Amino acid sequence: MCQHDTKQHQHLTASEKTTSTSRRKRLWDLSRDTHCPVVGVCIPLSVLRRLVSKVLGGIPQADDYEIHVGAIAECGHRNRMSETLQEDLDRRYALTIKRFRAAKTAEALTQLWLDAIYQGDVAGAFWAGLTHPMCDTGLQEGMCRDMHMLQHQAGATVRADIVRFNALLEENAVLGREMGRHQDRHARLMKEKTSEVDKLQQQIVQLRAENIGKDSVIAYLTNDLQQLREAVPELESRQKLQQKINQMQHRQQELEQQLRD
After folding, report:
1. Which of 110, 135, 159 is nearest to 3 (CA)?
2. How far is Cα 105 from Cα 19, in angstroms, rounded to an integer?
């Protein structure tokens, strides 16, 4: 940033040590050299286009540069356009104008301007300083030089920001593609897991059905056995007796075999 120190500005405004008129300058009172930076820096382009449309009574069929140049051309004398711009600037920067009003000398005004440069808030200070009663030709030229260099540095900063922004866009695109791949993989895995869960649920249903069938068969067989026992009360005793007879016959066969040996 090109910053003139207080002494440099004091040198430019040495003739300003005597009190000037207390009336603030109007836009058309300023040097034509100031109109371009005032319109370009102090009035947002969208606002300028709206103000021009208001004065002309319709939307101008012109690009931004033509709007800018046309507005500057009207600032050299008092007319509806310059008065409209004056009103907007005074309203937009009313607080800064009020703060600058406290400067009673050129030195104090210069310091306010330098403070604004340091703080990076120059639009309102530029307008309030140029229209201040204590701003003479020397200080005006110094402020315009400062603003000229600030615009250069702002342009360099914007270009650097654009480079960084484009780099971030590319990085974001890479991350977006990578995220897309992860999302596709996740969706594929979810589909596979969902299919596995469906199969397991089908197997569970099938096993439950089979168990229910087995339980039914067991219940039926148990019931048949009970009915059979009830139909033949001596069945269990006969079965035990038959087992005893079978055991005795087996023992007899073993003894006969031993005797033959």
Report:
1. 110
2. 8
| Residue with more model confidence, 174 or 63 | 63
Question: What token pair was written down for 143?
Answer: 């402020």
Per-domain boundaries in the chain = 6-165, 202-260
Place of tokens 């709206």: 50
Of the ranges 1-5, 24-28, 30-34, 185-189, which one carries the lowest mean pLDDT score?
Answer: 1-5
List the single range of 9-23, 27-41, 240-254 with lowest mean pLDDT: 9-23
Per-residue pLDDT band for 232 (boundaries 50, 70, 90) equals low
CA distance to 189, 194, 203, 237, per residue, from 200 (Å)? 16, 10, 5, 50
In this predicted structure, the answer to whether residue 165 has a pLDDT above a threshold of 80 is no
Q: How many CB atoms lie within 10 A of CB 66?
A: 12
Where does residue 78 fall: left (phi above 0), alpha (psi -120 to 50 degrees), or beta otherwise? Answer: beta
Q: What is d(CA 139, CA 11) in angstroms, rounded to the nearest whole number? A: 9
Residue burial 13-35, b: 16+ Cβ < 10 Å; e: rest: beebeeeeeeebbebbebeeebb
Residue of 50, 75, 54 whose CA lies nearest to 64: 50
> From start to end of 59-171, where are the E strands?
none
67 in Cβ contact with 52 (< 8 Å): yes
Phi, psi of 104 (to 5 degrees): -105, -10
Confidence of residue 246 (pLDDT cuts 50, 70, 90): confident
- Measured CA to CA in angstroms, residue 147 lies from 21, 39, 45, 123 at distances of 25, 12, 18, 9
Q: Please enumerate in sequence order all residues whose Cβ is within 8 A of that of 22, keeping only pairs 6 or more positions apart, or say none.
A: 133
Residue 45 CA to residue 32 CA, distance in Å, equals 20
pTM comes to: 0.55
